[in-house]
Amino acid sequence: MSERESGAKPFDVLCELRKVTRVRTGIVQAGSLNGAPVLKVIGAGSFEHCFSLRHYCDDLIQRGNQRLLVDLMECTYLDSTFLGTLAGSALKLRKQGRVLQVGGGSRRVMEAIRTLGLDRLFECVEKLGPYDAADLRPLESGVTHKEMTGELLLQAHRALLECDPRNAPKFQDLVSYLGAEVAPVDRREAR
Questions:
Q1: What is the rounded distance in angstroms from the CA atom of residue 20 to the CA atom of residue 145?
Q2: Residue 101: CB partners within 8 Å, gap ≥ 6?
Q3: What is the pLDDT, as a whole number, of residue 6?
Q4: Of 58, 67, 87, 111, which is most buried, counting CB atoms within 10 Å of its CB?
Q5: What CATH superfamily is the domain 7-184?
Q6: Residue 149: which of 170, 174, 172 has the closest Cα?
Q7: pLDDT of residue 12
Q8: Where do the H-state alpha helices sit in the chain?
Q9: How far apart are alpha carbons 101 and 88 in whole angstroms?
Q10: Maximal C-alpha separation, the chain
Q11: Burial of 63 (0-12, 13-18, 19+ CB in 10 A)
């Protein structure tokens, strides 16, 4: 039986997927390096960080920051929703002539970035400059906005499709499913 036939909602699907994959949630911290905002990912960057990640990035973009730096030195894993959320922010920055720079990723993390074609969107560097770790503060984690989960997943995976057409076989079915699930909710709320 498919997820659609079973009546599973995007939030429920994510919770089940999390149990199956046993990915431990990491920590995402925010700070700055010479006035440029820095996000540091420690451990796994997952969908559980994406609500606060999107809000944080949107705020920085709105404030006109020229660069967003992402430190992956201590990152062990990035899921597609986290990468798609970063890609969405990078696309917004690029349209305004600005850049999202990632640095310090392990071979596995950088391979995930390359596999999704994000190395052509992100400015990838071996290592970011030094910054004061005492200045870092954690971003909120946890899926606190259950009703927004489908929309967040949809936007993140649409961004991955926009970044590289080769991502279609990986994510088109998910985007189609979420588009059908999220759109009816949006129409009901608009009434």
A1: 22
A2: 67, 68, 69, 70, 122, 123, 124, 125, 128
A3: 46
A4: 87
A5: STAS domain (3.30.750.24)
A6: 174
A7: 57
A8: 3-6, 10-21, 50-62, 80-95, 107-115, 149-163, 168-190
A9: 14
A10: 53
A11: exposed
| pLDDT score for 13 | 52
Q: Could you say which residues of the chain have pLDDT below 50?
A: 1-6, 17-22, 186-191
Summarize pLDDT for 91-119 with one digit per residue, the tens: 999 999 999 999 999 999 999 999 999 99
Give long-range contacts, CB 8 A cutoff, 24+ apart: 23-30. 23/77, 23/79, 25/49, 25/141, 26/75, 26/76, 26/77, 27/138, 27/141, 28/52, 28/53, 28/138, 28/139, 28/141, 29/136, 29/137, 29/138, 29/139, 30/56, 30/136, 30/137, 30/138, 30/139
Amino acid found at 100: L
The CA-atom distances, in angstroms, between 157 and each of 65, 78, 145, 150 are 24, 14, 18, 11
The Cβ-side half-sphere exposure at 122, using a 13 Å CA radius, reads 31
Domain spans of the chain, in order of start: 7-184
Residue 152: both structure tokens together: 């967040």
Which of 106, 47, 48, 122 is CA-nearest to residue 74?
Answer: 106
Contact call for residues 28 and 141 (beta carbons, < 8 A): yes
